[in-house]
Amino acid sequence: MSTRPTEQEFIRDEFDSVLRGRFFYAPSFDIYGGVSGLYDYGPALCSLQANVVDAWKKHFILEEDMLEVDCTALTPAEVLKTSGHVDKFSDWMCKDPQTGEIFRADHLVEEVLEARLKGDKEARGIAHLSLEEENEDKKKRKKKVKEIKAIKLEDHVVTEIEEILAKIDNYGGKELGEIIEKYQITNPATNGKLEPPCEFNLMFETQIGPSGNLKGYLRPETAQGHFLNFNKLLDCNNSRMPFASASIGKSFRNEISPRAGLLRVREFLMAEIEHYVDPDNKKHHRFDEVADVVITALPKNVQEQGSTQTQQISIGEAVKIGMIENETLGYFIGRIALFMKRIGINEKRMRFRQHMGNEMAHYASDCWDCELHTSYGWIECVGCADRSAYDLSVHSARTGEKLVVRENLETPVTVEAWEVDIDKKKFGPKFRKDAGKVTKFLESKTQCELESLSKELANGEIVATIDGAEFHIDNSLVKIAKVKRTEHIREYTPNVIEPSFGVGRCLYALLEHSFWTRPEDTGRKVLSFLPTIAPTKVLVVPLSSNSQFVPLTKSLTRQLRSAGISAKVDDSSATIGRRYARNDEMGTPFGLTIDFQTISDNTITLRDRDSTLQKRGAIPDVIQSLLAMTNGATWEEATTKLANFESQEIEQ
Amino acid sequence: MSTRPTEQEFIRDEFDSVLRGRFFYAPSFDIYGGVSGLYDYGPALCSLQANVVDAWKKHFILEEDMLEVDCTALTPAEVLKTSGHVDKFSDWMCKDPQTGEIFRADHLVEEVLEARLKGDKEARGIAHLSLEEENEDKKKRKKKVKEIKAIKLEDHVVTEIEEILAKIDNYGGKELGEIIEKYQITNPATNGKLEPPCEFNLMFETQIGPSGNLKGYLRPETAQGHFLNFNKLLDCNNSRMPFASASIGKSFRNEISPRAGLLRVREFLMAEIEHYVDPDNKKHHRFDEVADVVITALPKNVQEQGSTQTQQISIGEAVKIGMIENETLGYFIGRIALFMKRIGINEKRMRFRQHMGNEMAHYASDCWDCELHTSYGWIECVGCADRSAYDLSVHSARTGEKLVVRENLETPVTVEAWEVDIDKKKFGPKFRKDAGKVTKFLESKTQCELESLSKELANGEIVATIDGAEFHIDNSLVKIAKVKRTEHIREYTPNVIEPSFGVGRCLYALLEHSFWTRPEDTGRKVLSFLPTIAPTKVLVVPLSSNSQFVPLTKSLTRQLRSAGISAKVDDSSATIGRRYARNDEMGTPFGLTIDFQTISDNTITLRDRDSTLQKRGAIPDVIQSLLAMTNGATWEEATTKLANFESQEIEQ
Question: Where is this protein found (chains A, B) (predicted)?
Fold first, then answer.
């Protein structure tokens, strides 16, 4: 029973002052001036995080018997070179050579162009906020653009800019450089000209061991650890497919200039699933369970036309019409939507946005982001990517270790294929030190290439150019022929569907979605966490510091603890009303008041945070009600045995 | 009911082959050849870890309302410079200039001297193992010393070496260098002479942000994050003392040459508590609860005499006689002992060893290690240190931020103290740019120093030498006088008692302590985890792949899940006996067999892993028994309602 007003204005300063005042979080190394992009979680947010992670484990790992792994963050460079991260895991940055300041190119373009559009609206008299307010707001939000000027743009420029903003995630360094040039985007503080965008790798580098010979990085995702253990995981699953591995752990990204509070951080908790699936069969046996889940979708073709118009569509329909590529991808998108609902995310502020072509990570063949709406705009909180066979293939090729599934075929198949048969006895003496190279040349050929090589061979010899040198291979050295073979085993590299959660971002969105102000008293803030997720379930409040209440308070908290209900006591001298107000800011859903009547008849008052309604009953009955509500029952369902109780909340 | 034979020989190869075969763990980046000191946890160890961490949270955080924090691993250099880690957190290493090999000096000395003692025993005819076996063993354990030679040593040399080994943790680089010189310790593989020991800092270094201006380290402990948030934590606790913060997270140490498997790793999970206490009152209000806990203690004076003789002593007695310095330190040592028992550590293989003077970390004033015995010897698994006011003081001094407790005094006290009164109006013009320096010089003086300065001033002037320059200060510029003042508030820097758990080491010891071989069949290995801690509680085994069992299996696992009992199904075609044998290696305490009788009367067989006893009953009764046992009840207590069941376990 929530009394959250639907259209209340969200004021980030007030929100932030509750979160920091109650030590949900704080900038790390605060007394040293802090480091941007690093934050510490205090007790309440630790507990919220533990409950959300616990819900995640139940919803995903336990529900589907996923195999959990816990791999190291320290990763040797070679692994991340193979996975493509050393070369491609980077953002574009622009340096101001005058001041030495460094900007993330896409964010700067976005911010400057958005500011110009706002200035244009103001000039046309259709701005929402007054410029003064807006400029004030910019300063508080630590935006680079500190002032918006009311300058009217030409109509076609407005259209161009709107298109650029819709496609901003689709641009590489070259395009960003062109936009910066064309729209004369400069350092907003000094108007200084910027250097063209250059790539900055987002991984933290370090040295492993004392010799300085082993370069390493902190992992930017947990995924690689799963992939490298694929054979062991498959073995754990008795070689059965499909199956999934899961991991919850910290990852690290050296963001260029993080300025969005808890949303853009350099060290963060990820919860990642790698679901391994037969590339020829991406059906999912539990797809039915999510087919009717309706999501808000923003597919790529809409964005590529420069629009952000969403549509409501069921998972079943989206897969049917090909908007979502396959059942397994659809299944996980549906499961993500259900999870978000389970932890208390406002569904109206959730959408699934498909990546555009250029935007996709280097390993992905399709990707949908679960975006949650916050005061910073729409934020990617979960990525759901089809990584195809990319990772398993590249690691296998690099190490020579097969990362494949072998399936017994019920009916053996006859396969016809071109095969190379090298006469090794002659090959060595003929090519000497290059024998290996020439062998590799022949063995790495595709079927089509082998077919044409067989023709060259029939016509006399193959002339191979390898590393600039020429080699002559005739049919005394090698045979290339089409061979028929009966195969009893099918061997394939699985595809990987990856739902990847940024836990901290989900938590932040949850905090914003849960925050409101009591309309009757704007000084009173509330965080309406669901009872299943709330950091603490119950606040125990003895009416006064009277010593008669001490044993009652102890006995009550002991009973709550043994029922598994986490409780805190506030026996400070503040009024009941003030203690409850403090408690509302912590998001504790229930309050229990011990008063003089409790001493005589063992009854207590139960208070609901959102409605401030109160009911009274015997302690065991109240504990039963609490148990039901912390397991998901509503106030109405759980409190039928309790009597209504009227009392005014005294504020001071 | 365990049938673990008490004196069974532990064979590490067999143990390791079960752990790796069942993917409890694997070397990280295995298919790339691995990186020493980095390991991944597979599903079973992840689950064991989660259960142990959960037990830890209940035993410490929940039980005592500790305040949890989650701080970043990335730490700017300045913080760790202040804490002393940049200068002092290092080990001594020796390089072989010929081969480039690097050895950890203390470990090398220990290993070489231990090998010489063994060789001496063999020469005297009192060796336990034959040298061949021992040498074989060294190779397997990846020891640096590959061969032990039967060479008799002089009696006084044996005594000297025994003393050195007892005090090995007490030596610095200079002493290690002298020992290496005196006993001619060389590279065991090549006999090459080593360079003298030099210090190697154990922290991983990196750069934060794109500019390269902010050097950072990965934290070597979680503690600093707690300390920097002290004021916020105190505020969360309504300014009440004493209280504790707690944190569970990864820390990183760049070990020189880790060779002890899961025991010496470069990235590891820590669970740390920082308990803040009044330095004038280190009593603990729950000390009574642990006073009777008996521990095996090895105090520092015994070790300093070159002995490792332990004694059994109660916590109460140890504090009373001053062996343990104060109640709070004693309380936590007792709580640690109780926790170890709770998770299934063999108490006979647990001791508390006090650090010797030189061995202590730079921040500690007293420290006791909880050591667990493993096949690698006695291993430090938990440190319990009194960090005094060290950390809070140094961070406060560096940042100018007070990290103190302020207490209202019930009766105000009169304090008499020397005070400096600087005439700032004159000070500036007189000393100009050095005014700040001179002010700091005066304000940083102790009471004694102020007293003597006051005399100098009375005699004419103070002549201060600061940074090589001389400054003359007379009594027109400054007054120094003894002042009486009434104080209503007491301000103090708390002391910190820190129990710090290496979770991975506790897990490894638990694995070794739980491992045994069925005496009747040496091929059958068992991991006897307590039901409360075991990764999976129940294995469900349908008798055969008969399709009649499928719905029963599904319904049973659903019932188990809704009762909160984690279960796995093994419906492979192996015999029941073989499936149970597999299961014993996973440490699953209970098995449920579904057979044809189940179809007709809804009864199932319940099997106990350790005793292989079986009982039979109706499904709801069996689930009740399981619930009781996973909450701590014994087999005898929990299965009274079930009937005995005789069946031979068929092995093949």
Answer: Cytoplasm
